[in-house]
Amino acid sequence: MDLTEFNKDFVDLISHVSAWAAAALPNIFSAILILAIGWWLSGVAARAIAHVVETQPYVDPTLRGVLKRIVRWGLLVLVFVAALGQLGVATTSMLAALGAIGLALGLALQGTLSNIAAGIMILWLRPFRVGEYVVGGDAAGTVTEVGLFATHMTTFEGVSLFVPNADLWGTKIINYSRSSPRMVREAFAIAYEDDIAKARRALLKVVKQHKRVLSDPAPGVYVNELGDNAVALELRAWTPGSDWVQTRFDLIEGGKIALDGAGITIPFPQRDIHIKTPPQDGAPPKVKKRKSAA
After folding, report:
1. Top-level CATH class of 3-108?
2. Where in the sequence of the chain do the CATH 1.10.287.1260 domains occur?
3. What's the CATH number for 182-261?
4. DSSP, residue by residue, 112-180
5. In what helix (H) or strand (E) does residue 223 lie, and over which residues does it extend?
6. SS3 206
7. pLDDT tens sequence across 237-286
8. Which residues partner with 23 through β-bridges?
9. CATH 3.30.70.100: which residues of the chain?
10. C-beta separation of 102 from 65 below 8 A
11. How is residue 229 annotated by DSSP?
12. CA geometry: angle 21, 94, 92, nearest 5 deg
């Protein structure tokens, strides 16, 4: 190939590149502009949604982060598809391919998708919120964050739990913080020979002096069971849900002190043991009776 033919081919290449650039550059510039504006608008829309959630008292704060991420990434997907369409890419076939890929990923990630579905149901029905103490299956603790995949909890001992949403949604959920007030129920055993009315007055005095116990509903002390070794009295008192744990501890300790001060015996299980001595020289067998703790 001589220099003349090379120069001709080079000129043809330059002309073709120039023609392509002249036709494609506006579309490329438009696609970049769409991506830039779409990225900015998605952030603005996400922040606007978060602000609306913060100002509405009836919207659970748990939904704030989830709604923000859904809005932002949903808009970014639409912006990306629009930019590809501006470049001449067949978005219809691309969406079909993405759908097929999504189906394959869905079959491979069934567990993950079940966690997402459970997270959506938890966020929609709100069986618990951030800051509430719940028990679900083997997990128990105060909810610190609810996400699409898992729920973060902190146990009573301060241990952090990361619980998949499917494990929570697929079991019975007990929310100890949702209801207020709550009842404290504690049993106190007294001896059969002790005065029930006297024991009741001692326990009620402790309850009425406790600042966290509510007067309505009124507290009470009832005979709950006649056991083998003692009469079981049940103390019932109502307190705000946030004070339930401390109130229970106080009433157990205060009830024990009050019963001791009133001379009421808290018995321990006992049984009578009869010991027979073998007869000697034709004498009748001797029986010894001994009382022993069970």
Report:
1. mainly alpha
2. 3-108
3. 3.30.70.100
4. HHHHHHHHHHHHHH-SS-TT-EEEETTEEEEEEEE-SSEEEEE-TTS-EEEEEHHHHHTS-EEESSSSS
5. strand 220-226
6. helix
7. 999 888 888 999 999 999 999 999 999 887 876 666 767 666 666 556 55
8. none
9. 182-261
10. no
11. S
12. 95
